[in-house]
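Quick question, first post here. What does this chain look like in 3D?
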Amino acid sequence: MINNIAFTLFLGKPLIMYGGIFAFLLLLATATVGALNFRGITIISLKWHSRLAIITIIVAIIHAIFGLSIFFNF
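> Answer (accepted):
Ran it through. Tokens below.
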């Protein structure tokens, strides 16, 4: 069932691909906010670093479940 969702096509590509790209972009955004605040550039508040990290973990877990469902057929 989850396997079918992972392979659902959106704009000609499976959702699992978009999940990976989105997780990677969130990871880069989280690292950027942390690095900017570490250097003293507080354009984006440090509280957003924690929020982005939580969202990144959630998206990465969903992406991992999609990937595992391909191999374990659930």
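Residues 9 and 15 are 6 Å apart (CA to CA).
The first strand starts at residue 9 and ends at 10.
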